[in-house]
Amino acid sequence: MSGDLADNAAHGEYELVRQLLEQLGVPVYVLPGNHDHRDKLRRHFDLPGAIGTPVQYAADLGPLRLVALDSTRPGEDRGELDADRLSWLDAELAGAPDRPTLLALHHPPVSTGIAAWDEIGLPVADRRALGDVLERHRQVRRVVAGHVHRTMTAELAGRAVLAVPSTYVQTRLSFNSDEIETAAEPPGFAVHALVAGELASHVQPVT
Fold first, then answer.
1. The three-state (H, E, C) secondary structure of the chain, written as one string
2. Model's pTM, two decimal places?
3. Which domain holds residue 178?
């Protein structure tokens, strides 16, 4: 899940999410969004890392490798990718250069064209720095994110970037508004399938 598992980062919210996800009977991999608390997320989902540090890790999902990168800036809605996080990512990707990889983070590392979202997104310099890392690791097939509560695609360093809809509330597409507006659109999630070495991504609405 690409972040914002809770609204207020309360223990009760995380416990409810964990219980609901357990009903799926499949492994669950989560990362923090701007509404989450890193250490509470660690506690409820048994995630690696020291207290107070970014939540990031890699997992092998059969032939596909998942790398979760923490793009949050605690206490703020906007994101960041500092030198330490990008160095970690660079080393993590270098460790498995031949494995098709899906990179997941909360904040889309691209411009959305929606001013209100771009103000609380990743800084341009951080997006470019991430692009530089991706240029060195061609096994990354897709970059996936959340945050914007709607489906959108873009490109970074020649890789497709996919932002998925929220499982809660969606936002309206408006290039002329300075505010984030909600929309009466269905929630959804993405399904990624690696077939014959090619990665296909589907967005599935929930109605």
1. CCCCCCCCCCHHHHHHHHHHHHCCCCCCCCCCCCCCCHHHHHHHHCCCCCCCCCCCEEEEECCEEEEECCCECCCCCCECCCHHHHHHHHHHHHCCCCCCEEEECCCCCCCCCCHHHHHCCCCHHHHHHHHHHHHCCCCEEEEEECCCCCCEEEEECCEEEEECCCCCCEECCCCCCCCCCEECCCCEEEEEEEECCEEEEEEEECC
2. 0.95
3. 54-205
In a domain, 31, yes or no: no
Domains of the chain: total? 1
Mean pLDDT value across residues 177-188: 90
Q: For the segment 1-37, what is each residue's pLDDT rounded down to a tens digit?
A: 788 898 888 999 999 999 999 999 999 999 999 999 9
Query: Which whole number is the average pLDDT over 118-129?
Result: 97
List the one residue out of 161, 155, 165, 159 whose CA is nearest residue 186: 165
Which CATH number characterizes residue 185's domain? Answer: 3.30.750.180
